[in-house]
Write a sequence for this structure.
């Protein structure tokens, strides 16, 4: 068993291959945190707890003033219960009173895990779980804390279920997960960005006393922030040092609070944002929080990322896509915008084949000419597609390509039949809302809306037989409110539950249709989405100079296989980039094209065909291998992707600027097998992994204007 309960000390030990998480039931009957870190032998750890009098800390005089909920580390701290730090749980009980002390009642340990109804959650395969039952004194409010452990992947998950055992309603104001850590000599690592720069800025700041953290209150995880964060030792580097990393399996509003308390310990509280949130639980009802994933490593930020990458591939994304070939797509958006029609798509199909694309995606524009009309109705534009989409798809299939279709299901344009008929179906505050991009967000918390969208999408998809859907979302919730829900504090959360329900029904009906989610670029890049869609459009910024940093930033939390990344002609940076550079950056993730290949010469198209073939040869490394970031600084980014069995690797270096000082660089590889011998494509010579990782190789020819990419493959020689 990886989860052990030691009854004399009432201690729980949760072990993974390399970590231990421990807590016990203390003198007050409260679950008190003991330890999270490197794997340690099972022993009585209670001696490390804080047991001293602390002025102004409340205590129970029966137990004594050395035991205060305000000073000991906690597993499930609730508000108004003697702990003045940030709480993870907050309620108004059935008698209208705030807070509730929660005491241990019972527990059970089992193989596998319980599903979280209505929410995405990590796979039960290889899991063991602990259900810890806590109750208030009256016994009419119950909190079940679920811990799930995946030994092989070094990941632990935590989520809670609040149950109302009283006769009257309970109001849940907060149901987050808490992880208390000893000490505060840590840095906080977070991913920030904006539209066109999603997760590009990896911010690392030392923790200070007080509260820090990040959040989203937009109804989606967002372009600016991301639910992922890490707390690492000041001296942790890419390759060594203590790191605790967290991510939330949820796509709506979130809040990560990191508090350094009066004793210099660190509290991590992560969950659904409490902004405009209040969930009413009628008698007998329950509320389940999404799960928080955590991993500990002493192998630095690189190993932290690889722990999460492996976990996401194995336990989050739909298994049928996790390790399979992802089709190379050609998408119409960047080249044509709304200007698409049947003939253009068919012409494009021919050149798509020529460059080695396997699937043609009809992006936005099939039911409208601009972004003002038609969202919600999805009525095919007959002038542009006289034979209809089903016939078009047939013709594309006849040309030997797969077919993909863009949707933005969660929205309605102000100018749509849907909005005219059902204005009460959009999310809207008492003051009405802006029609941003001409559209409003549909109230997916209303099951009728989900039913309508499912019927609409199925009607189209049944005819079209698409192998791929691009599921877009181009507007945040800016004025929350529902004409239907009596309980306005539930609108944000019920909306995202409705999105999941629609995704569930669509993926159930079309299990082999690959969904790539998207939100105005990468505005909803999170584990909740990855549970349904194995890849997410990373950003609308496909300029290789920006993309390389967007992708490396995103890679802190998410594997390359989850990042839609296309070869385009974008010039957002204004800098020139050659084809090699464009290929090198796009081949980092789930590869595709997004431009008009008909404009290229025959020779150039042949070159792209070679890239497509090369990508297929390297796909095993890119989509299923391990990523090692080597450097990311002002003028250069370098990383190596290594196959799981370490027999094949692809190294990429992107140089942004011309430099006379750096005409060559010595680079040390990572992640190879030290004892193996590899053929290096740079000079076609053989080197041992040890030489490549310790002495390194010198890469020349960097005296190049306007940026340059160097790609080197390593293949083990036997
Ligand atoms: C935003 C997406 O990020 C783009 O790729 C494209 O699909 C447009 N929406 C279409 O409106």
């Amino acid at each position: 068993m990886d989860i052990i309960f030691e009854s004399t000390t009432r201690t729980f030990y949760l072990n993974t291959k390399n970590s231990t998480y421990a807590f016990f039931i203390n003198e007050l009957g409260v679950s008190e945190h003991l330890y999270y870190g490197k794997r340690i032998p099972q022993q009585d750890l209670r001696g490390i707890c804080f047991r001293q009098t602390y002025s102004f800390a409340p205590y129970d005089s029966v137990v004594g003033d050395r035991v205060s909920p305000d000073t000991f580390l906690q597993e499930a701290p609730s508000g108004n219960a003697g702990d003045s730090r940030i709480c993870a749980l907050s309620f108004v009980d059935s008698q209208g009173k705030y807070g509730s002390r929660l005491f241990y009642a019972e527990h059970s340990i089992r193989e596998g895990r319980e599903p979280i109804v209505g929410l995405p959650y990590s796979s039960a395969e290889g899991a063991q779980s602990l259900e810890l039952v806590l109750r208030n004194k009256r016994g009419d409010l119950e909190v079940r804390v679920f811990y799930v452990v995946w030994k092989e992947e070094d990941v632990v998950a935590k989520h809670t279920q609040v149950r109302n055992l009283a006769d009257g309603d309970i109001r849940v104001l907060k149901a987050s997960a808490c992880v208390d850590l000893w000490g505060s000599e840590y840095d906080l690592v977070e991913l920030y960005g904006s539209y066109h720069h999603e997760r590009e800025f990896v911010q690392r700041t030392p923790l200070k006393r007080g509260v820090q953290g990040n959040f989203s209150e937009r109804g989606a995880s967002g372009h600016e922030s991301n639910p992922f964060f890490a707390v690492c030792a000041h001296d942790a580097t890419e390759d060594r040092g203590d790191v605790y990393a967290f991510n939330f399996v949820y796509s709506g509003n979130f809040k990560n609070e990191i508090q350094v308390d009066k004793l210099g310990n660190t509290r991590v509280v992560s969950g659904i944002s409490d902004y405009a949130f209040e969930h009413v639980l009628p008698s007998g009802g329950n509320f389940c929080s999404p799960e928080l994933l955590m991993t500990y490593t002493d192998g630095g930020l690189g190993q932290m990322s690889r722990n999460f990458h492996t976990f996401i591939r194995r336990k989050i994304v739909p298994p049928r896509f996790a390790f399979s070939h992802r089709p190379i797509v050609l998408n119409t958006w960047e080249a044509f915008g709304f200007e698409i029609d049947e003939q253009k798509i068919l012409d494009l199909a021919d050149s798509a084949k020529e460059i080695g694309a396997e699937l043609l995606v009809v992006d936005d524009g099939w039911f409208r000419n601009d972004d003002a009309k038609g969202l919600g109705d999805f009525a095919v534009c007959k002038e542009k597609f006289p034979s209809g989409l089903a016939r078009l798809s047939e013709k594309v299939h006849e040309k030997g390509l797969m077919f993909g279709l863009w949707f933005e299901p969660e929205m309605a344009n102000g100018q749509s039949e849907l909005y005219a008929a059902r204005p009460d179906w959009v999310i809207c505050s008492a003051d009405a809302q802006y029609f941003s991009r001409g559209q409003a967000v549909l109230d997916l918390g209303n099951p009728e809306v989900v039913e309508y969208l499912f019927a609409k999408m199925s009607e189209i998809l049944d005819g079209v037989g698409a192998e791929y859907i691009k599921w877009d979302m181009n507007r945040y919730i800016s004025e929350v409110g529902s004409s239907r829900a009596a309980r306005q504090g539930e609108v944000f959360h019920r909306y995202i539950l409705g999105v999941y329900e629609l995704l569930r029904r669509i993926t159930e009906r079309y299990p082999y249709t690959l969904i790539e989610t998207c939100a105005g670029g990468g505005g909803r890049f999170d584990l909740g989405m990855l549970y349904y869609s194995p890849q997410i459009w990373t950003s609308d910024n496909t300029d290789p100079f920006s993309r390389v940093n967007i992708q490396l930033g995103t890679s802190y939390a998410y594997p390359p296989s989850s990042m839609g990344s296309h070869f385009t002609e974008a010039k957002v940076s204004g800098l020139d980039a050659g084809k090699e550079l464009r290929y090198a950056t796009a081949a980092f993730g789930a590869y595709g094209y997004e431009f008009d290949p008909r404009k290229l010469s025959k020779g150039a198209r042949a070159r792209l065909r070679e890239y497509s073939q090369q990508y297929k040869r390297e796909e095993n490394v890119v989509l299923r291998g391990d990523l090692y970031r080597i450097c990311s600084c002002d003028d250069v980014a370098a990383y190596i992707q290594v196959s799981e069995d370490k027999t094949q690797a692809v190294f990429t270096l992107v140089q942004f600027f011309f430099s006379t000082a750096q005409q060559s660089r010595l680079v040390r590889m990572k992640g190879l097998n030290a004892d193996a011998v590899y053929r290096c494509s740079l000079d076609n010579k053989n080197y041992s992994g040890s030489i490549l990782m310790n002495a390194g190789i010198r890469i020349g020819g960097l005296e190049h204007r306007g940026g340059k990419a160097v790609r080197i493959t390593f293949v083990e020689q036997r």
